[in-house]
Design brief:
It contains eleven helices and 13 strands. Helix 9 links the parallel strand 12 and strand 13. The chain is of the alpha/beta class. It has one domain: Aldolase class I (TIM Barrel, Alpha-Beta Barrel), CATH 3.20.20.70. Helix 1 packs parallel to helix 2, helix 3 runs parallel beside helix 6 and helix 7 packs across helix 8.
Length: 364
């Protein structure tokens, strides 16, 4: 096996020092209660990754308000004290097993499939999302046509992220990750074809990234300098995998440049294959562009379950940390296995049961 020792070095993101450079990527599970409260199953799930050697765990996307942010039924929330207190059990258990944990805070925007608080969705503009809802998470048919977010609703969104971050901080999370990827609300503002606004939030790339920057700055101000704050960025979306930024490197320079000055501690980029060129005009990956223009630590995600590939991204300076999704699901002990030169299991989607199944644990 290729030398992968660099994966096991300590690394610091903001004020958080990780035991190694390998994290668990945020992955939707829909295994909370109907009221968005963490279950014992979720405590076991997150703890198992910590026991398996992962230095960092980033939670599934967690809704931030009782308005438009919820994405799926049985998605966990961080809106009420009861939700926060149950999350504390996850935090304490993960910490006891030796890992650090960030909460990913999310506003679904136009891609909501299940919201117990309200009907309808908001987006930057009245543009029907591409594709169809994800049946695995209880959706069916086309996404609804969203309404355009008002200035007041944009302010509410910012406040929702701030309040969620403060709640996460209050129950012991090591940091928060702002979900700015995959077609959800912040990414919908960033994306040219979903953002048809003519005000300061629309038009140029500089305007379209504005809300992401405002959220980042507001969260940073609210939680202080000692709490780690990052953001997740992608080109592709859950309903449009192949999307690329039209402005290519120029867009990357603007987006990552502004985010790099927004008070964030890291940028988490996700691509289908993290190491591949982001655009057809350059050999650089999206992670490399984030590093080049953001000038802050970068987490890379996308088919990095091969330890050699993961190590290579660290060695080449494209990323400071790598996160695993399917590789972690197949091997909750991926880090320990790689360390001990043991064989890794292949990811088998057949072993993941539907959310409505009676037993919903991923098979370890």
């Amino acid at each position: 096996m290729t030398n992968t020792e660099n994966l096991f070095e300590t690394v610091t993101l903001g004020n958080t020092t990780l035991n190694n450079r390998v994290g668990v990527a945020p992955m939707t599970r829909t295994s909370a209660t109907e009221e968005g409260v963490v279950t014992n199953q979720m405590i076991s799930y997150y703890t198992s990754f910590s026991q398996g050697g992962f230095g960092l765990i980033i939670t599934e996307g967690t809704y931030i308000d009782d308005q438009y942010s919820q994405t799926y039924f049985k998605q966990p929330g961080i809106v009420y004290d009861k939700q926060a207190q149950e999350w504390k059990k996850v935090v304490d258990s993960v910490h006891q097993a030796g890992a650090k944990i960030f909460m990913q805070i999310q506003h679904s925007g136009p891609l909501s499939q299940g919201n117990r608080f309200t009907e309808g969705t908001i987006a930057p503009s009245v543009v029907q999302p591409k594709g169809e809802q994800l049946e695995f998470y209880g959706g069916k048919g086309p996404f609804p046509i969203p309404k355009e977010a008002t200035k007041e609703e944009i302010t509410n969104v910012i406040n929702g992220f701030v309040n969620a971050a403060k709640r996460a901080q209050s129950v012991g999370f090591d940091g928060v990750e702002i979900h700015g990827a995959n077609g959800y609300l912040l990414d919908a503002f960033l994306t040219d074809y979903t953002n048809q606004r003519t005000d300061e939030y629309g038009g140029t790339t500089e305007n379209r990234v504005r809300l992401l920057v405002e959220v980042s700055k507001a969260v940073r101000e609210a939680v202080g300098t000692d709490f780690t704050v990052g953001i997740r960025i992608s080109q592709g979306k859950v309903n449009d995998y192949a999307h690329k930024w039209a402005g290519k490197e120029q867009d990357a320079a603007s987006i990552f440049g502004q985010l790099g000055e927004a008070g964030l501690d890291y940028i988490h980029v996700t691509e289908y294959k993290a190491w591949q060129p982001a655009f057809d005009t350059s050999d650089l990956s999206l992670a490399a562009f984030a590093k080049k223009y953001g000038k802050i630590p970068v987490i890379a995600n996308g088919h990095l379950e091969n330890p050699s590939k993961a190590s290579e991204m660290i060695a080449q300076g494209e990323a400071d940390v790598i996160t695993l999704g399917k590789g972690a699901l197949a091997n909750h002990d991926w880090v320990n296995k790689v360390k001990n030169n043991e064989t890794l299991k292949e990811f088998d989607p057949e072993k993941i049961l539907r959310p409505d199944a009676k037993i919903k644990e991923f098979e370890i």
